[in-house]
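Progress report, Aim 2. The chain analyzed during this reporting quarter is listed below.
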Amino acid sequence: MSDDLGEFLDREIEAGTFPSGAAIVGTGDGIELAASRNVPAGASWDLASLTKVLATAALARLASASGLEWERAAGDYFPEFKKTRYADIRVRHLATHTSGLPAWRPLYASGVGARAYRATLASLEPEAAPGKAVVYSDLGTLAFGEVLEAVLSESIDRAFSREVAAPAGSGAAFGPLADREKAMPTERGNRFEAARCEEMGIRFAGFRTEVIRGEVHDGNAWGRGGVAANAGLFGTAEDVWRLARSWLEPGEFGDDWTADLPESRGLFWQRKRGAGSAIDAFSAASGRAWICVSSSWTVAAALAARLVAPASICRVSQFGSAGAGSFGSANLPSRLA
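Predicted structure tokens for the chain:
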């Protein structure tokens, strides 16, 4: 199986999917297998959407014991949603991608920083009524981050460092990194998001043009200062494994919260039913970071760097598949899904 991990990376590198990568398979007790290609020792990766499950969901699990209520109106924690078209959004809608918020908009084009983001989020036009459809939404996760910081009474990065990373023995942390040379590069400038904005007819003159390294690639997280609920976390492959172990027993986060919809979602996790593209193999369009928990005892992770597209999207699984995390796919050597 260790040969399979290396061969998987070799195939993807040869196919041009990414120039470098790392893969790990382990249990709750230790790392069993590992492989890497073209990765400096101790290199940190932009973990992108892995932030949603290893940081945001982990903090939400703590916050749910400290006043966070899933059935409560999001506006009770996020005042900008009160008396708006989003007044009926519950906290669980944000965590299950059923809020009705669009999948993506460049919030930074309307102003950068947390205060500007809150105003922009509250002004967006809904695409569906809450609870009526699953639409994987970075915007919903960003809104949940505002709820989370209100409950925690501190920023996500500080709470994560103390309450999640330190107990797990993980060196993962939010950027920007002090030593950016230790980070794997992601993209030369924000060409991917710039093209999306052009397609949407949105103008923004502040796109980065240099190689993005050691600071979050995701434009919305970058515009919020690098610390956001949807992206911003950096870490090594071992850091990812240390954090992922806590999800071997997901509790209510792994339950099916969208039983009446075609796609099965837990809290921040996408389950197997209706997963579709969530468990697809790496595409040539982007480098990705995957985590799978294929049973109650196995964790697998794969990280890949790429200079021409977003660097990573993460999957973790125990009984389904993925959104920024997933529950259940077992053919790890062949697909790491």
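The CA atoms of residues 208 and 293 lie 35 Å apart. Residues 277-288, 306-337 have pLDDT under 50 and may be disordered. These observations will guide the mutagenesis work planned for the next reporting period.
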